[in-house]
Amino acid sequence: MTKPFLRHFLSMLVLMSTMTLCAQVEESATPAAKQLDGIMAEFYKSVRTWKIAQHKKQEDAKAAATKAIAEGREPGPIPAKEKRPSDALFALTIKKLQTTALSYKGKDEAVRFYTMILQLSIECDNGKAALAAVETLTQDHIRSKELGGVTAVLAFSAGLIGQAEVDGHLQTIATQSPHARVRAQATIAPLWGKIDRAPTDSKKYRQAKAKALKAAKESGDEKLLAEVQASIDGREKLVVGTMADDIHGVDLDGTHFKLSDYKGKVVLLDFWGDW
Fold it and tell me: What pTM was computed for the model?
């Protein structure tokens, strides 16, 4: 189940926001945060080096092909881009995370290491490391308040470790965690896909919506409830025939504008991001 690395890696980074990235920034002075930051900084540096090497390989091949054509020779093939860095890089990083996590066994700090191991394992299709991380999290850290951040990543790992494994571990968290928010997150995690993709007039969507809202409300966490409601609103309000929000912005000439300025005209909205 090989996946395009960059697309999936960006998805992985988005999932990390549900974990504890903010906590890492706020607690950057703690030894655990520094160790985790250091390990991942090395990983990201290696990824950047890999990307640069990929680009150079492509550009060199294109230059050689152009030269060959100019000289009347048959151009050589342009090498295909690798889908992701080598398994060895992932394995090395996972090993570092595993070793460091052992020094925080039974503590909240370890959760962040095992969550990152799970994320990297999904990316490099390492089912053994992923399952070991999940089992450690639910067996040794079931009482951790940090466990809620794992649920979204866990739900995302079904294709690697199996849906039954994912459902079982999420059920364990949902029933055994002493923290209301964590229990709610475990309940809601497997519902995101249905809320985001199931037809809004389907029974599957209605059931997922009701269950997610119920869990969020019972958690007493207003932020979690707002997150669920925002996803629901995004499906139900942003549909053909509904009035778009009056988006404000600045054009390429530096002129401020709002969407309502173009009422009655055909408008193409192009939302994009750069990483």
Answer: 0.75
